[in-house]
Amino acid sequence: MNEDLFSQLFDLFNQPGPVNWKLAAELTGHLAGGREPIEPWMAEEYQDLSRLAQLQIAEETPLDPGAFSNVIPADRRGWADSHLMSFRYLIERIAPKFAEGPMPGALAMLGPALLGLQMGIMIGFLSHRTLGHFDIGLPSVEATDISLIVPNVEAFATENGLDRRQVRLWVALRELVHATLFSRPWVRPHFLELVERYLDGLELDPEALAGRLQGFQDPEQFEQLVGESGGFSGLLTTPEQQPDLEALQAFVAIIDGYAEYLVDRAAARLLPDLARMREALNRRRSEPAQGEQVLTALLGLELRPNEKIGTASFCDEVARRWGEDALATLWEQPANLPSLAELTDPVGWAARVLLPAEEL
Known about the structure:
It is a single chain. By secondary structure, the chain is mostly helical. It has one domain (3-349). It contains 18 helices and 4 strands. The strands form 2 sheets. A two-stranded parallel sheet has the order 1-2. It has a two-stranded antiparallel ribbon with strand order 3-4. The model has no long low-confidence stretch (mean pLDDT 83).
């Protein structure tokens, strides 16, 4: 980063509000890069395949994705600019902890700046990796349209030697299935409740905070903080947070696993490379992107990719033993969702949720 950027960043520090969103936007734009307009033929291709994905989901699964007719093929900068505020549910919940921390005077300006920097780094890095809204487990819940990040989808296909058209359709299927699940009346509020419960239990570490504040006194140290995905790690600790963490992890896991189960059903006849694409995604998840590392470092929120990778087998087993109707009971109410332990124990889940409705 050059000196001009640092001058601009320091000038932006004195912004109102618990999070310095102007600073976040500046850093997001710098990391995401300039606009790269999508070629008209490419945009039309993505939109056509998204319409095909909608038809397949409606025909082959119990979901109706009709509410998501507007699928937007986006470049990295366009996605970053339009989705920065969509992740504010993660950061604004913890902002009061900085204002009420052990150094409230020093944090009056630097607390919002720290959080703005963190958000800018996270979204900027994610813009180079994520394929869409639901690629990192924690979605941009305020987004009303579905955006597919074309350069990242194309890069994923190329890097893994996959057919581009199949990958485009597969990503559209995944995003539409996830979005439709989250559109159910209780799902989004329940997810936000789990996130808020976890975030409310975090505590500010004064020693870690003091170390970060020293970094703002030296431009070289500041550059290191901004340039490292874990530069602000350890600010928040998670005392006695395991139950809340596991509840959130279980929710993310079952959403992702059930979506994978339905995508496999919808795509089976159309995507010969389905297994290869899934394997490539699993490999990718085993090496979290910098934006995901930022989230993990700040919030202590590791979403355990291996949990997500294995959850489709829970859905397979429930459907095999008790049928599709039994599997669909997952989405009747929050109490029917499996716990983290039940994801590897379908019989235990069925004993709790399905009995006495039917004989196991």
